[in-house]
Write a structure and sequence with these properties.
Blueprint (H helix, E strand, L loop, with lengths): L6 E2 L12 E9 L6 E3 L18 E3 L5 E3 L2 E9 L4 E9 L5 E3 H6 L2 E4 L5 E5 L5 E7 L2 E9 L2
Parallel strand pairs: 2-8, 3-7
Antiparallel strand pairs: 1-2, 2-12, 4-5, 6-7, 6-12, 9-10, 10-11, 11-12
């Protein structure tokens, strides 16, 4: 199930607190060197400037430079009900981007296929479905407390 970025109470997921959940659709991006989240997204998650990428510069598709503003770490729940920790760089991007190279470096396989795309953990065999929407591959996640 895909969702817009809004506060919801998803079916099949227990409410962890009074804040409910926010659905965060992350773009699975084979061209991103790091997983990146927009500066203003998830405003209550603090930005840490202790990471190695802080202060570095990225080049976006049109060639413009954008600065790394730090890192946000948070947990989210997949549609399959698995809890995942995300450590995402913060920059002035339009959408949250999940780096395919970062996913694979953590022991996963990413499969893009017209009959079903997914991320597979190479050790556990667990599958997480990703969806093709208007030519982009999207991983919907549910972030508690927003």
């Amino acid at each position: 199930m895909l969702c817009p970025l809004e506060r919801v109470q998803p079916n099949g997921v227990n409410n962890m607190n009074d804040g409910g959940y926010t659905c965060l659709n992350m773009i699975v991006d084979s061209g991103a060197c790091d997983s990146v989240i927009p500066t203003e997204m998830l405003p209550t998650v603090p930005i840490s400037t202790q990471n190695a990428q802080f202060g570095s510069t990225y080049q976006v598709a049109n060639g413009d430079p954008i600065s790394n503003e730090g890192e946000k770490s948070f947990q989210a729940i997949t549609n399959e009900g698995s809890i995942r920790t995300f450590n995402m760089q913060v920059a002035k991007v339009d959408k949250p981007l999940l780096s395919v190279s970062g996913i694979t470096k953590r022991g996963n396989r990413v499969v893009f296929d017209p009959h079903g795309s997914y991320i597979e953990n190479c050790i556990t065999g667990e599958f997480t479905q990703i969806h093709e929407i208007n030519g982009m591959y999207v991983l919907p996640t549910w972030v508690p407390g927003f």
